[in-house]
Amino acid sequence: MKNKHVGSSFDDFLKEEGLLVETEATAAKRVLAYQIQKEMTEQHISKSDLARRMHSSRSSLERLLDPENPSVTLLTLENVAIALGKRLKIQIG
Question: Rg for the chain (alpha carbons), in Å?
């Protein structure tokens, strides 16, 4: 019996299993959380300070920084970018 996945890409496998969108969303969220935490460290900004700058709660910021929680709104991303003195850039590619 021939393995149907031999010669296919990992993306093809995830797509066939119905996991590609969820996997890519989780990966993107992990990158965002990492970038935000890196900026916080470089700028010496605590979670409480960043939440205050965002006019948000610390628990809301914790959800944003949670790499396992892929839910995030564009408004939240814009708020965190402004609070960090950055600009949000979104690209489909």
Answer: 17
